[in-house]
Amino acid sequence: MNPPGRRIPHGACAAALAVALVAMPPLALRAEEIVEPPPEAESGADYAIEAADSLADETIEVGLGATGRPGGGPRRTRRIRFRGEGLNATMREGAGDPLAGGVIEGRVAHGTVRAGRLAPRWGRGLVFGATAEPWDSRAADRGGSAGRAGDGVVFRRGDRHGIETMAGTFERRRIGGLGWYAGPWHVGGVAASRRRAQSSLAFAGARDELEIALDQAGRWRIEALRAHAFGGGRIEAQARAGVTTFRSLAEPKRSGPAQSMTVRYVQGDDARRVQVLGSWWRFRPGAFGARAALQLSGDVPAGRAVLGVEEQQGPRRLTSAALRARDLRQGVWGEWTAGDPDLTLTLRQEVWGGQRLRDAIRRVSGVRVEVAGPGSARLRVAHTVFRTAFGENLYLRETYSDRLVLRALSGSGTRTFMSCAVPAGGGRMTVSMQLTRTRAGPLRMVWTFDWARHARAKR
Predict the structure, then answer these.
(1) Is residue 133, in this structure, part of any structural domain at all?
(2) How many CB atoms lie within 10 A of CB 260?
(3) How far is residue 334's CA from residue 384's CA, in Å, rounded to a whole number?
(4) Which of 54, 236, 270, 394 is most solvent-facing, going by the fewest CB within 10 Å?
């Protein structure tokens, strides 16, 4: 039931339209979906994510970097990575580098020890680690070697059956944990000071996932996911329930809404694909939201294209700024890519506003060109024109040699990103430049230099 005086969410209409369009031949495209930083990130600030580990076995990587702007000294960074038989290590250092720190992982006493950066996840992430946003299957920046939630040590013994112990610091809070797993089942608990503790019972099968979490005060939360084939595609249904006062002991800012329901449907392959999403969530009484989206992608005669429409209602995060945001947001975006590995051109247009896109709160137009040169050299140029309303943030994806940066922009202006990578000094050197101009300020220029070399480790 909708509260008195509140209109029926238009997301229901959008979802019905999406279902009706599933049978239509999809357009084409391999577009990057709209990406936002996780809830714990500072609003309106850049957010850096470590690039996926692509280091080959028995390999050492050494990297040097620097970042600067006119009138200021450069900030230098260094990194070293190693992957060998039974031992992996990464170390980064540099003033102001959000990815600074290190991690080492190796086999000890018939088990595996990981020390340094930690981003653990048990089950669906209700207790140790972080839950995904209601409209995502899982948090991509948590679990395994991804992301950084804290620092500490984890020891795991056994493959399909065994134990896992952990001690670390999360948000200046010391936490210890002990877990036992057998096949798809996992049970464990975490504890901190002041007699605070939480327990978790999780199941992770081929198609079904479930986690039940409980704290020492009796507050609880449960989340489940089920996936199976349907109508020539794959459908996923996800649900969460629990009390509004439950907070993850390790990452309270990423506890997410107390209740949610999400259905995702994907049909097709790279040549043509249809994706439909419907989601509803509730943080607390009076703070709930919904999202409905449809994306069509695939091949077209002149390349690849994607077309997406989406509607959002209510806050996506439990912050004062999110609660004051517009109640209804509708968006449409399209992207077209043509060319081959030697020369690629991509055009993108995105518009967000109120009902029927009236009173636009965000407009983005972009063009990106990638050119392959002699000797494995590669040049990338991306130019974006943007305009956002007051309080609205735009995040652009910028890829560097060792990280992905979600660049935060607001107001009206342009941003140009240029990057050139060439072989140099037995490795690969990448020089990039970012030019940002807004109506509220002068032209801002930032340059980045990075050099990395790979070498085979001698036995």
Answers:
(1) yes
(2) 22
(3) 14
(4) 54
